[in-house]
Specification:
- There is one protein chain.
- 96% of the residues lie in helices and 0% in strands.
- It is mainly α.
- The protein has one domain.
- It is rod-shaped and about 65 Å long.
- The chain starts with a helix and ends with a helix.
């Protein structure tokens, strides 16, 4: 019973880590898009 619970906790922790890594990746990509758009506006306008 305890072992099963531990497995669930570990599985949940791994899922949370994967989710936060994905969120971080999306934030980085969004930031890159934003900065490149600002860069283009600044140089070509």
């Amino acid at each position: 019973m305890i072992k099963r619970t531990n497995r669930l906790v570990i599985a949940n922790a791994v899922e949370i880590e994967e989710d936060s890594a994905l969120i971080l990746e999306v934030k980085i990509l969004t930031a890159l898009d934003y900065f490149s758009a600002v860069f283009v506006d600044y140089h070509f306008n």
